[in-house]
Amino acid sequence: MTTALSRHPVAAPTEVDRRLLARLVRWTAFASMWAWGGITLVAWGVTRSNLGTMGITESVIGSMSMTPRNFIIGFAITLAVGWFLPHVATGGTRRSYVSTTTVAVVLMAAAYAVLLAAAFRIEAALYAANGWPAVINTGHVFTSGEQVGLVLAESFTLNLALGLGGVAIGSGYRRWGGWGGTYALAVTALPVLAATAVIELRASSGLGEALGVTGLDAPATFAVLAVLALVSLAMAFRLAHGAPARPVGAIR
């Protein structure tokens, strides 16, 4: 007896599908180009506007650092939902899909951390040359854009926690459909909310100052974000297991 072998073997349950990963990375890079292009234009416009009116009083990049965070969450949800159906329908496993999406999110988190660190570093040099105060009024473990190591570490761990949180949210929609996934946000969105609170509820942010909280130090912050990322990852694998290979709108 002979067994017919496929010319393109299906990935094992724990294997990353390289073709799918390449597709996810290309799409992420394309979308990120527009996102960061918009961030650059807004930062330039706000700086020019402030110069002509009230002057430069704080870090524009610091104020806008929340924008790429929100984009990562939303795009990770898209990754978790968008290519699931064709992947499973052509013989791929749900586990390999989540594994591949996770790698894409890790790469995205690292790239965004480098971009944000570069933006802070450029802004710090520009502000220093012009004598402008580079005050950061949003929640961060660092106090200056020149602290490149802390900027990279915070950005990567936060992006990873938020990105994997988005994968968990998307997996909830894939498992239970539109309404079910929305109801499940009461659970699936908790790690994202917790990660945001870990960063924002500190003395350096306006909210933290108003509430009178000091926040965690850098090592504790990174540790909590890492735990939240693992919680979201475990949730994503669990929700994807047994998720129906049907369009989300058709899931009841």
- The helix fraction, in percent, is over 70%
Largest sheet: none
Helical stretch tally: 10
How confident is the prediction overall: mean pLDDT?
85
**Unreliable sequence segments:** 1-14
Write down the Rg: 20 Å
Shape: globular
Number of strands: 0
- How do the SSEs run, as a string of H and E? HHHHHHHHHH
* Class based on secondary structure composition and strand pairing: mainly alpha
Total separate domains? 1
Proportion in β-strands: under 5%
Gap between N and C termini: 43 Å
Structure write-up:
This protein is mainly alpha-helical and 252 residues long. The protein has one domain (18-23, 56-244). The chain has 10 helices and no strands. The protein has helices at 18-52, 60-64, 66-82, 84-89, 94-130, 148-183, 185-188, 190-200, 206-211, 218-240. Helix 5 crosses helix 6 (148-183), helix 5 (94-130) packs antiparallel against helix 10 (218-240) and helix 6 packs parallel to helix 10 (218-240). Mean pLDDT is 85; it is low at 1-14.
